[in-house]
Amino acid sequence: MNKLDSVATDVATVKLLIDGIFVESRSTEWRDVVNPATQAVLARVPFATTDEVNAAVAAAAQAFKSWRKTPIGVRARIFLKYQQLIREHMGELAALLSAEQGKTLPDAEGDVFRGLEVVEHAAAIGNLQLGELANNVAGGVDTFTLLQPIGVCAGITPFNFPAMIPLWMFPMAIATGNTFVLKPSEQDPMVTMRLVELALEAGIPKGVLNVVHGGENVVNAICDHVDIKAVSFVGSTRVGTHVYHRASQTGKRVQCMMGAKNHAVVLPDANKEQTLNALAGAAFGAAGQRCMAASTAVLVGDAQNWIPELVAKAKTLKVGAGHAAGTDVGPLISCAARERVEAYIASGVEQGATLELDGRKPVVPGFEEGNFVGPTIFSGVRPGMRIYDEEIFGPVLVILAVDSLDEAIDLVNANPNGNGTAVFTQSGAAARRFQEDIDVGQVGINVPIPVPVPLFSFTGSRASKLGDLGPYGKQVVMFYTQTKTVTQRWFDDDTLHVGVNTTISLK
């Protein structure tokens, strides 16, 4: 973190959004936003003051009074306009994302597009926020439910998907009638802020969406603030666990999507070429910086003979800057991230795993200062090794060997994480047994990264998730609304009930 004085600088500053106005923070704590391929400083982001966080929440609380009563069709049309604006600016958004996060341009477009799908879903809020009605449940009595907004909600998002994950959060919260305070990752907030600008252009009123930046102090302020009713978080297990417990203690609804160790189980009858391509793409895409990356391969029986071909496939991937043509694997987000991944690779060697492919210190001409680690593959990995037990969050694939599908299922279920898993096979019977017996929230069958489309909800489980409702889909409508049940009876003058009824019956 850098301390900035009042000396002018040519580097742009990232603004806060409070009550519909982009404002310069008065903070004395700032951080550089750095291009991970070049180390060039792109902007400086403030760590918001307590007063600025309070102002953002106060603006959201004031705006909620009118926004909650805004007709549902008005809300829906804003998000129809918003998805159009995102499409029109897709190239700009992808370039900005690639520059500050490091992803390849095609992957950056995918990041934006998967968020866009949630915006499209939010535009259908008229169908998603329907209650239920039971007519004449007793003599002249009807019962119905309302799904009403809960108030000011907040979101804390990670660096690895600076477009998609903010778009998981604030569109659905706002579409359901809430107001929102967003805290993007301080490592790459620029594309998030551009998306926020487009949201305002689409018609989101002042105060309905607010943005503050910062680190631990701002996170804690969000967890503690009495006027915030719900918090959504995506990030590391360490921070997510802290957020869940701290925010829950103040009575908030909390959903935390956290770390993972996703296993791809490969049966020997799987289509070899399709499976090898899927493993390489899911393990090394986005430089492995995905909570749903297939970071662990479990090769069953004769599939263990495929390791040389998998290594050969990984060697064909080009490491380079995200904006450079033909790049498959971009840089890690920071120098610290690169050093951490390199330390994991060293630990794998020290603990006896076989280093089939070493991606440390790749040569990337023209980008010698970049945070690059190339595709790395270990075989002979066992539980108890750090490279298996801990999430590496880099382009490192660890391979375990088992003799049967049952042994593979037991191995996956013994791991504490439950974000995602996949099985590769041409056997319907094996796939069905896997999907029924595996204790993981999201299952792919010949699909390496089984993140569901927004018609469904993100359903990570066990140590990968805290809170019982996931982001987007039907579950998040329930997360962002309060179910109110109304039981009513109307009387005609000639059917008035006579006498006092002291029972609980509605007859």
Automatic annotation (TrEMBL):
A GO MF term: methylmalonate-semialdehyde dehydrogenase (acylating, NAD) activity
Domain named Aldehyde dehydrogenase: residues: 22-486
The protein's enzyme class: oxidoreductase
Keyword line: NAD, Oxidoreductase
GO biological process, one term: thymine catabolic process
InterPro entries in the record: Ald_DH/histidinol_DH, Ald_DH_C, Ald_DH_CS_CYS, Ald_DH_N, Aldehyde_DH_dom, MeMal-semiAld_DH
This enzyme's EC code(s): 1.2.1.27
Domain of life: Bacteria
Pfam families tied to this protein: Aldedh
NCBIfam families xrefs: MMSDH
Family: Belongs to the aldehyde dehydrogenase family.
Annotated protein name in UniProt: methylmalonate-semialdehyde dehydrogenase (CoA acylating)
